[in-house]
From TrEMBL:
SMART domains: HATPase_c, HisKA, TPR. It comes from Bacteroides cellulosilyticus. It catalyses: ATP + protein L-histidine = ADP + protein N-phospho-L-histidine. PANTHER family: SENSOR HISTIDINE KINASE RCSC, TWO-COMPONENT HISTIDINE KINASE. InterPro entries: HATPase_C_sf (IPR036890), HATPase_dom (IPR003594), His_kinase_dom (IPR005467), HisK_dim/P_dom (IPR003661), HisK_dim/P_sf (IPR036097), Sensor_HK_Regulatory (IPR050736), Sig_transdc_His_kin-like_C (IPR004358), TPR-like_helical_dom_sf (IPR011990). This is histidine kinase. Keywords: ATP-binding, Kinase, Membrane, Nucleotide-binding, Phosphoprotein, Repeat, TPR repeat, Transferase, Transmembrane, Transmembrane helix, Two-component regulatory system. The chain crosses the membrane at residues 397-415. Gene3D superfamilies: 1.10.287.130, Histidine kinase-like ATPase, C-terminal domain, Tetratricopeptide repeat domain.
Amino acid sequence: MEACRTTGLVSLFLLLFWLLIPGHIHGQQTSEQEKYHVDSTLFVYYQHCKAEIKSPSVMQMLDTLFLMAKEKGDLRMQAVAISSKTDHFYFGPSFEGQEDSLILYTNAIKDFARKTNQPQYYYFAWANRLITYYTKQKKLNLALYEANKMQQESESREEIDGMQNCYQALLRIYQSKELYKQATLYAQKLIDLILKYNLNKYNMTNKYLELSNCYLRTNEPAKAWKALEESKLYIGNELNQGAYLCGLLRYYIHTKDMVKARETLKETTQLFSKNTELRIKRATNLLEIETNYYIETGEYDKALGIFQQAFEKLSQNGFITPTLYRTRGAIYTAKKDYQKAIESYEKAFELSDSLNSAQEDIAVGEFATILGMEHLNLENKELIQKNQEIQLETRRHIIILLCIIVVIVGIMFFRETRLNKVLRRAKDAEQSASRMKTEFIQNMSHEIRTPLNSIVGFSQILSSKISEEDEESKEYTTIIEQGSNHLLQLIDNVLELSSLDNGTTILTETKIELNEFCLQCIESAKSLVKPEVLLSYQPEKSELYLCTNPARLGQVVLHLLHNAAKFTEKGSIILSWHILPKQKQIMICITDTGIGIPQDKQNFVFERFAKLDTFSKGTGLGLALSRLIMERMGGKLVLDEQYTDGCRFILVFPI
């Protein structure tokens, strides 16, 4: 019974010591900047804010830090700025509305962290600020309510930061409620999580020591010893070593091995005497264990002296509990100083009644808060359910509309498919007819051309044998020869059109000098020009080389010159060319002062067999054939609509 009481005192001192230690916000100050690659300006300003964390002015400073981080695009420092606002209310002096302010900024950092995918800040503020605040204020039901919510959320999302923080929070809460079976469960869960995901093992010694203490409280010394052995593997400095020795000493006292307890106490005292950090952070812990040791060994004077030192340190921080007075009463009882023992027990009962009354008030308030939260959650769920029903109805209407659209599209697609089949059959029939037409034209043209060549040849022979005196015979043979040539030209044009319609390509790989080419065309057209017409050539440059198809290009230019000569009685015919540098093209113009083409007939003349004067000579295929040749060469043939003094045909093709 005495061992359980002393172990309970150990646990209480450990818990009070933990509540007195401020939580570490962002790791060690010296390595923080390098570790997180923080901008130097932001880091220095953050350290300034950190130094003023309890001052009311720090809230405005943290707003400035947030804006600075936002300008630099640093989401992590923005989260730190909001999170530090929870630090201000957590570490600052108590005031009315402190809890509401802490809840407000905890929700603010949770909202920001979730939006920016930074779960470490989401769970840190929730666990180490809000839940820890509830624990320190003995609002354990509220703390447990929030911790359970965090556990459900973090485990459902499989977020390791959240699980680590909530297991730690639940461990502290169950220790505070003296429910050590549950505390043991979460201490083990926390260790397993750290080992499974290879998390930071800096405080693993303390984790195992907490587990060992929980096992002692549930009277499982074998498991407590195993946890102690595991903690020894992670000792990295004298602070860890001191904590381990305290845990070992506690174990030996619990198991009544006072010989080893004496040796361990001596080693622990020596280590504490030479290490200042240990004396500052672990002094109370060692004093309460020493008190238990001397109680167990029956050295009650020493126990009372050590206890008094611990009592004074705890009094300075306002952590006097009924257990402390009961421990002092037990020491006085053992010393047979019954008057002081009675006084101590009276103090314990008085404080216990006061605490029980206060805790009942707190519990009532906690349950009222929890009921209020549940009521709000229920209303929220009802609103969500209504919203989901509305969304479901909307989706149902959308689905019906989509089904109608799909049916309409399906019908249209079916009709389109059927129409495409009909069109495909028509297209195939058209292509077949076109091929048959082309084959017919080619075969007939070849068959007609052979006797026609004979007619032309014999008409020329006949014309040469008729004497000049026989003018009538001479005229008839000339008509025969001209008609035969005209018919031969028609057949050649038809064959050429048929060939180009079939997609025959025209190669443009022959290099020519453009001025020389144009002068040859001028010479070929001179004999057709009427006496009162001036045929001239106007180049842009004295020399220009380009790659083209001179035969095809000459065919087009000569035809246009022949047309100009045919319809120009007087005036001029000009062949000119210009470079279009931006388009990398050549523009050749044939300009005349002839009869011209009416505005409404300018597109008609490019159609096949199109003739403005049905009695004029020609087949009406020249311009259609010329335009098709230019298109196959990658150019175009157009009529200048702005020119009204005759005709101006323009050839445009790539250089």
